[in-house]
Queue: 2 jobs
Job 1
Amino acid sequence: MATTTHTDAATREQYLQMHRWMCMAKALDDRMHILVKQGRAPFVGSSRGHEGIQVASTAALGADDWLVPHYRGLANSIVRGLTMKEWMLAVFAKAADPLSAGRNIPGGCFSYHALKIAPVSQVVASWIPKASGIAYAAKLVGDGSVTLCTFGDGATSQGDFHEGVNFAAVHRLPVVFVCENNSYAISVPIRLQMANPDVADRAAGYGIPGATVDGTDVPASYAVCREAVDRARKGEGPTLIDAKVWRMNSHTSEDNHLKYRTKEEIADASEHDPIMRFVAWLVERRWIAAEEAAKIQDGFDREASDAADWAEQQPDPAPEDALTNVFAAGRAQGASV
Amino acid sequence: MATRTQAPAATDEKLYRVALREALNEEMERDDSVYLIGEDIGKFGGAYRVTEGLLDRFGAQRVVDAPIAEEVIVGCAIGSAMLGLRPVVELMTINFSLVAYDQIVNNAAKIRYMFGGEAKVPMVIRMPGGAGHQLSAQHSHSLEVIYGLIPGLLVVAPTTPEDAKGMLKSAIRSDNPVMFLESMSLYNVRGIVPPGDYTTPLGKAALRRSGSDVTIVGVSRMAVLAHEAAKQLEEEDVDAEVIDLRSIRPIDWEPIVESVRKTGRCVVVEEGWSTYGVTAEIAAGVSERCFDYLDAPVRRLGGAQVPMPYSLPLEKASIPTSENIKQLVRAVVGK
């Protein structure tokens, strides 16, 4: 397998940083699976296989840009600055969880105002119109920010996808739509989702540019996303990117993909690990030694384990606070309403 | 050229929809973060002419003529509200808001809570409900209760031009999502609108008429009919007190309870279906809070339990009238 299809769009240091982010995401992902097996955490929605496009697309943003990720967007959030300890606070639903103060399923949604990660949703595709709204606000206020909106192939069957992308196209909003196309809507394969598996082909229908990229190819993904972000920033409107990836795990810990995927297919998916591919590319260029890459992963694995042990001991939200934040301050309405 | 022939009255009588327009105009003037989005609200001026003239005044970026796509109209409003704008959505009717129900319920109402209070959704969704125009089953229902159910939403239904303006201003300035329920049959109602900038608080019922024999609580336009019925009942020596609910969520229990404890009798009226309806909630709450004071069971009245028919006589037979309210009141007071 070719390690990349693209020449350099980023510097060596930027690529090495992307590698570290991918390793962090993998470490957290692996640790969550262990926690679920141990009965310490209730749920994991895995990002394994998606790290390449997630890191590449998010690295293409600036600090003042917005991220509207889907529920598999762990690596996106890490690039924005989410720490391992913070993530584990969310996994254990602790009071200090910065994503939701223990109110929301971990990975169900991401939200972190300080990191410009917008509150999204678990209802598939319903965040796409919101991303267009965020981009509309940016355009109205004129703050120059770009919004990155990510979703899976499953989301593209929803009406919200069409309405959100179309609206952004009509108003030439500064938004980049990235479909992380792992070819499964939970268990439903892409052939039962759409007659044309190339989501980017739909861009023409909206009058916007579309691009297809191998989402496990980090340099190629970064180049495509960078171009889309630049275009958005220049006021030239949205881009629809179809990034082909392979989902390496089950949809979530609530299902077993052996029920709907063959062993051969799952083995093939593991051959498309974006981290393996990216490390091979970095090694090929002598930017990192294989041993050094393994050491980095080991280090993050330990950090993820420590973060979990630490987070588990932090205080839970207080039951008497169960009704807070239903309404914005000054209009709090409790159970009697 | 037309010339003014009459001096303007000191306190103007205005149409309900003009009062709404004034509120939008003034709020957009005082706050650049307020913008409007909806179908046909620009050049066309809105299906009920509420937004007439606003496109010319504020431009296409702040008066967005949206595609027929309720999910993105509401979704876009939510996204931009999370970033600090104050969108005012117009949906053509509350019946079409069902298309955007997921955005409203699973998103607008829950975002603040789900994310630990981090986000605010200062958004208003304006939309009319109600029948009486032969628009049949998919344009005529009231459906207040489907939003009244939802924690995280403020749900109001102003019935006078004065309240329409004052409550819309409050809704726009609120940091919570507000479902602003107008009524098709009230747009052309005329009433006194105080001059200048004023706000009417959300979450408060209004006493429309004092009386000692029975309390009638009316929801949306039914508060207007209840008032008419009460005036007519005077001739029959029935002294009815009328409360305009105004706020469907939260419910302002205090004046209702105070009134029923005084009169000992209560009738609740809505245009929507009363089974599981707003009136069901009010009747249950009154029974819980006033049981020892009641001289008769709380009674409720709602629209016929059918998809609204098109035929005029059938439609008329499906909407509560002031005559229906009078009959129920007579039964409750034993006349």
Job 2
Amino acid sequence: MIRKTAAVWAGKATGTLSRVSRRGGGTTLPGDIARIIDPKILTRLAKDLTYGSIVVTGTNGKTTTARLLSWLLEGAGHRVVANRAGANLIFGVTAAALNRAGSDGRLKADWGVFEIDEASLPKAVDEIQPRATLVLNLFRDQLDRYGELETIAKKIEKALGAVPETSRAILNADDPRVAEIGLNLARKPLWYGLDDISVASTTLPHAADARTCPRCGSSLIFDAVYVGHDGVYRCPNHDFSRPTPEIAATNIKLDGFDSLALTIDGTRIEMPLGGLYNCYNVLAAYAAARSIDLTAAYIADRLRTFKAAFGRQERVEFRGRHLILVLSKNPAGFNETVRTAVELAQGKNFIVGLNDRKADGTDVSWIWDVDFEMLKGKADVVIPAGNRAHDLAVRLKYAGVAAEQPQTDSGKALDLLIKSTREGDTAYLLCTYTAMLDLRAELVRRGWASPYWET
Amino acid sequence: MGIPILGNMKFTVGWLYPDLMNIYGDRGNILTLLRRAEWHGYETTVVELGRGSTTQMDDVDVFFFGGGQDREQALIYDDLREFKQASLQRAVQNGAQILAVCGGYQLLGHYYQTADGKRYDGIGLIDVRTEAGKRRFIGDVVVQAEIEGLSPSTLVGFENHSGRTFLGPKAKPLGRVLQGHGNNGADRREGCVQGGVIGTYMHGSLLPKNPHLADHLIAAALRRRGAGALSHLDDSAELAAHDWILQRAQRR
Ligand SMILES: [Zn+2]
């Protein structure tokens, strides 16, 4: 216990120091320090939680889904500890728990809601012993960092197979590779999925990458495609098909980045988030909330007033221009944000930002799997930005999109955007993680936005 | 096919296993070949050569064979030998070009040998062999190309592979490594050129940032149709991306 308290103190001191020195939000360094002093610190802290933890993993949507869950729990009067700033490795989770621990070394919260990087899930599940684990989707993402999709899927399957009996797996039935994980589990998971062909397409986008049957390798037949390779699918050899979701969304209505509405089991949910991909996040959060007995009526009421996380459909106003920041970090995610901005929001002005730092993935070839062709003839101004702006400029050229000169300097990219966006108009900033951080830091520097650890 | 048809302004790209072997943004190579051929005045088609038999391979000017994840690579292994090998050999003899990257590069060679000594036979179209290595080579690659007349003479890309590829006497290296690891991290060679086949570990994607290599492939393939030199295109955007990688390499 003395060791735990020492670890908590050392970690907390590091967090304060890091924030004071403005190196960032103090989001992971304290976790590193505390884990060195007490390697079991996270397990010990997790045991202090009144009710337990919910863990969220998957390629896309972790941050928004975790934020939705925190929002629901907090509204019901629970004290929630969460790793909010996308610090989704084990150190970030440890740091978040430390941050909420008191001087006695005890974690003072009722629930933990943690987003976990796919590759870190086994360790996190082992240390946290969550009440529920959500697996959102498995898309191709930063292969230089994570390794192959199949390896990740096997890791997740193993992690879910090792959780205690009281722990529930909540899985996206519409994702073929996630479904295969769930079908192999000894205990039946809680399945969720979309059920509205009016928002589906029948062809897979180019970026779809789990298009073969995980059992026999045949090309899957898709009766509906919602997002990436997520949809209603079956194998022609009849050995594999989409599990029937118990929690299903119907009657989906989408309005740009402004709002979405859907019906789950007779309950109408309307909320200020945009895009079909967010329907999945809402559905996942709903499924988890229902599994811990929050009522449908309460969930619907609470979600009405939800506010998006940093860089996820965040809004910034400047001299009458509306800037909407949307994190877009891999082909499946980028396709959805571009589609939402162009088709649903009728967006005309864009910054598309690409960096190749470690957190973005050092290999930028995936931009060729994004359907930037959607911007052709629709967008008026497209500014390639980020340290790999030149690569984006080439991508846009071959997509037939008339783009501006590439801007590797965030300030210059913003100046050009403001210059080319009329007062009253909306511009969309679709960027990878650190490209978003750079642009956002510039917005903060100019006093247009607040630092992200204050949001 | 194989007989030059003057005035036939068609250009066909054959994409081998687009659904399975397309992991590293390989679509960039396809789009670059198509758009550039169009800008040079040709009417383009892309034929997708998936699993099973196909009759379309004789029409192809440039084949593209990309990389895949291990699982996908296993799925095409038998199909390649059964349905594609003979047609590919015939096509190359008739002057078609092949660009093979990563997994595709390995599969066109003699074999791939795993860490525990198990050999998977390739189709032996190029005189290279590959063995599994321990460490993954990941990062930018800059190469001094050994293809005559290529201007600029550098090629840039991104590598991500653990295979170590060694060239036999019939295969010439695509270039000398200035930055990165290349074929095997030992002999400073990257890729191979043999007849109409170019194999390489560079993706990133390769052709968009190396428009001169794209045009080299297009021109070489069209020569058998009696085509002359290609028109001049404005490549300032492509070469700016190329130069950015060169400059970063020089800063290191
Ligand atoms: Zn099957």
